[in-house]
Each structure stands twice: as C-alpha cells, then as structure tokens.
Amino acid sequence: MPEKPAYDPEGTYDSGMRVFSYIIGGIVAWGLIGWFLDNLFETQWLVLVGILFGAAAGFYLTKVHGLTGSKPAKASVGHPAHDREEAEQ
Q: pTM for this one?
C-alpha cells in the first residue's frame, strides 16, 4: 500500500475547499450580521448588503491567500500520470 502523501498546500482539492469555505462562510456570517442589524433598526435591506459584503470579503480572502489564479496541477502519489512517469524513469 503506498504511503499517504504529506500535506500539500497547493493541492487542488484543499484549495478548492478553502475557497468554498471562505466564500460561504463570509456570506453566512455577514448575512447573519445584516439580519441582526435589520431586526435592530427595523429595515429590510441590510441583510442583502451583508450577504454581498460577505461574498466580496470571501473572494478578497481567496485572492490574498493566493488560492486563485492558474497554477499547474501536480501529479500526486497514486495518480496514473505520476505512476507512468516513475515507470518511464
């Protein structure tokens, strides 16, 4: 059984999950803050502002953390392309 590869900070799955969590987390957190402020001030539009701000903040965090952009995918252990390269050497 092949060893499990060490943590890869540039892994596509991990990066995708981090992007997803930043954006969804921002939407939920700031949407709840907007909902609370809507109830406090008896308005109906702050929840929308909170949701939009949360989405923008999530996208901003993904950009700051370098999770967006085009990076070539690395072949990992157990991947057919990686196995083929080892066999050719």
A: 0.66
